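note to self: dont lose this again. the chain is below, predicted strucutre after it. 168 aa total, dont forget to put it in the shared folder this time
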Amino acid sequence: MVRIKYRYFLLRLVFNDKKHGHDIESSEIYQQIKNAVRAVHGDHGIACMDLTLNVKYINVYTNIVFIKVRRQFYRMLWSSLPFVTCIIEKKSKGKSSKLPCFLHTLYVGGTIRCCQKFLIKYHRKELNAMLDKCSSPGERRKIKKSIESASLEEERNRTDISGEPDDD
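---
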């Protein structure tokens, strides 16, 4: 029996406005990516992506997105990502608006764990830039707490059962 292999994309949504906390759903990102694949690769691309494409995670505060796709189709997806030009934001009372944006590929990995390790390193580098953009002390605390919890999670994962750290 052969194992199905996947590729995981770590993407950052880049918006024209610098506002944090857009109300975006994973289904909307999925739909926009499918539309881009249809525009670039046609029916063949949609047939390949329909069963394998999956938006695993989205963080609306840091605009980070994890996407999973089968390994044999990841280049097809990768070539379609530049054609995602807007995301529809759901607002209160059933209203929606188009937000112009693009998807910046940060990392492509074979496991979600490798993407998470990269994301922790990326957040550590970007921490100062994020804190400078904060407008209130409460927002600053939220970002610090989020980064610290991710760092602590990495340290917990690095220790084995005996309590000794791994030699990475």
